[in-house]
Every structure is written in structure tokens, then in C-alpha cells.
Design a protein that fits this description.
Blueprint: E1 2-10, E2 19-20, E3 43-49, E4 60-65, E5 83-88, E6 110-117, H1 125-133, E7 140-144, E8 167-172, E9 189-195, E10 200-206
Antiparallel strand pairs: 1-6, 1-7, 2-3, 2-6, 3-4, 4-5, 7-8, 8-9, 9-10
The protein binds zinc ion (2 copies).
Protein name: DUF1963 domain-containing protein
Length: about 210
């Protein structure tokens, strides 16, 4: 089984819970992440309610990536400093004002619906969902839980805190509309992870 994220129409920018785009919900002490390579503010891509991934979980996985110089800041790498992921707790209720410089937001906030598909692997799931639903494959926004479907080698990151492999949370497509999509190299996938024990999170993308 694969738990798909599908496009459920536009969302308000500060909608609670899982969505792509809009403005992140964060703890009040949050400082907007800046790229280690170009020093510009990162673009907020998505937040995933961890309760949507696993029953009984709480908090948000929040994903940012540099888009100030696309392709030049090693933003595909989990450790190079061109992206950031956060695992926020129940205090992520604040909506920060994005910095005035750089590329900080996507041009659309998208609501997400979750739908189970009986596919073996995520790579087969959008085609199956299209056959069942009649909706365009492009409206699949990704998957949560289960197994990451890698386009290249398995690059599951290790936690900075405990050095253990991190738990897979979400695989993101670029988006349903190329005008408002994230940039994973043109047809790539983003991958979000967390370490529950340490409260750390990581992100990378492949194509
Ligand atoms: Zn950068
Ligand atoms: Zn850890």
C-alpha cells in the first residue's frame, strides 16, 4: 500500500496541517533559515503533519530549500547547507513574516488529501491512481510513510545527533502546476526524514 498525497485545491497561506506552499507554521522563536552557500533566505516548500504519517504522532515536518541561485547552492544535498528541514512540536502555531530579500515562498498554497493505493511501490502508484480516479497524474503531490522510492541510490541520511539512519516521512513531487511548483531539477523528487529520538529532520532531492 502507498499513501498518496493528492491535490485538494488551493489552501489559505497559513492553513494548519499538511500542505505545500503558503507560509510555514513555526514556534515563536523561529529564525527563517538562510542558505549556507549564498546566505539568501530559503524558500518554504511544504509542511507535513506527522499525525498524517503515523497515527499517534504529533508535530510538523517543515521543509525549506534555497532557490536564489537554482542549481548553484547544492540544495539537493542533505548536508551541504542549501536546504533545511525542521521537526516542530505542538508549539508550531506562529506564522513568521518571510525575509524581504530572496525567494522565500511558492506562488500557490495547495491543500492535500490522502488516498491509499494498492501499489507495491510509489513509482507505480500515480499511474494506478490515475486509472482509478480519472484525474491527471500531475495532481499526485507525493506520498507519506512507507518506503522512499529512490530515483538514484538510497541516500537515507544519518541523524546529526545519534548517527542512526533517519525515518522516512515524505516524498514530494514538484507540484501540480509547473508555474507554482518546487524545483527538484525538473521532474525530480524531494525526500523528508526525521529522527524521533533526537528531534532532528533532513531533506534532499534527486532526479
Ligand atoms: Zn543559496
Ligand atoms: Zn538521532
Amino acid at each position: 500500500m502507498v499513501k498518496l498525497m493528492t491535490y485538494a485545491g488551493p489552501a489559505v497561506a497559513d492553513a494548519p496541517g499538511t500542505r505545500t506552499g503558503g507560509v510555514p507554521q513555526t514556534p515563536s522563536a523561529f529564525e527563517w533559515p538562510r542558505c549556507r552557500e549564498c546566505a539568501g533566505p530559503m524558500q518554504f516548500l511544504a509542511q507535513v503533519s506527522l499525525a498524517d504519517v503515523e497515527r499517534g504522532s504529533s508535530g510538523l515536518l517543515s521543509i525549506f530549500m534555497c532557490q536564489n541561485d537554482p542549481g548553484l547552492c547544492d540544495e539537493w544535498d542533505a548536508g551541504a547547507g542549501g536546504n533545511r528541514a525542521f521537526a516542530f512540536g505542538a508549539d508550531a502555531l506562529h506564522v513568521p513574516t518571510p525575509p524581504g530579500d530572496g525567494v522565500t515562498l511558492l506562488d500557490e498554497a495547495c491543500a492535500v488529501r490522502f488516498e491509499q493505493v494498492g501499489a507495491e511501490d510509489y513509482l507505480e502508484a500515480p499511474g494506478q491512481w490515475h486509472q482509478q480516479s480519472g484525474r491527471p497524474v500531475r495532481e499526485v503531490l507525493g506520498q507519506v510513510g512507507g518506503r522512499a522510492a529512490w530515483l538514484q541510490n538510497d541516500e537515507t541520511p544519518r541523524c546529526d545527533g545519534c548517527a542512526q539512519p533517519m525515518a522516512f516521512v515524505v516524498q514530494l513531487e514538484e507540484g501540480h502546476d509547473h508555474r507554482t511548483s518546487a524545483n527538484f531539477g525538473g521532474g525530480g523528487y524531494g525526500y523528508g526524514f526525521q529522527c524521533r529520538a533526537c528531534g532532528t529532520a533532513a531533506f534532499l532531492w534527486q532526479r
